[in-house]
Amino acid sequence: MKKIGLLFFLLAALLGVFQAVHAQNDQPLALVMTADGPVMPPMLDYIKRGIQTAEQRNAEVLIIQLNTPGGDLMTTLNIIKAMRASTVPVVVYVAPKNAIAGSAGALITVSAHASAMAPETAIGASTPISSSGENLNSDERAKANKGNSCSY
User: Residue 107 burial by CB count (10 A; 0-12/13-18/19+): exposed, middle or buried?
Assistant: First the structure.
């Protein structure tokens, strides 16, 4: 008799677990990942894995919490390409407080399906640089800025 009671208890507990798991799958799924640091090839790989996971799990949205001073242009373009190819909407959220989306981070942020920023965060590029990431000399800087000035 005790064995039947124990078996019944285990069966009821098992059914309860499966129902709870099934109920969780009916809820919308939003995946959140944190990309913190310079935009370099490891960040590209990380974001690609996040997009792949979001697609495999049929997520409603992938949120990338971004904090970066910027980085490599080719890596940036490949991140943008991966976000645009995603079947899951990608939202870039510049956070936490005092985070920045500088330079390449600004391009990534505005290229997402949607973007948002936490209070006291910043976005934008600071200065033209060479393709190797070095500061431009004064002649190159003058040529880069020529004709690009505006007044508001």
Answer: middle
Domains of the chain, CATH where assigned: 26-145 (3.90.226.10)
Q: How far is CA 95 from CA 36, 44, 65, in A?
A: 9, 19, 6
Q: Which two tokens stand for residue 130?
A: 């060479």
Closest CA to 115 of 94, 84, 88: 94
Answer yes or no: are the C-beta atoms of 120 and 138 closer than 8 Å: no
What is the tens place of the pLDDT at every residue in 108-146? Answer: 999 999 999 999 999 997 666 555 556 666 655 555 555
Q: Chain-centre distance of CA 63, in angstroms?
A: 5
Helix extents (H) in the chain: 2-25, 41-56, 73-85, 104-111, 138-145
CA distance 92 to 62: 8
Q: Are the beta carbons of 93 and 64 closer than 8 angstroms?
A: yes
**What is the SS3 assignment for 128?**
coil
Which whole-number Å values give the CA distances from 79 to 23, 58, 91, 135, in the listed order?
34, 20, 13, 24
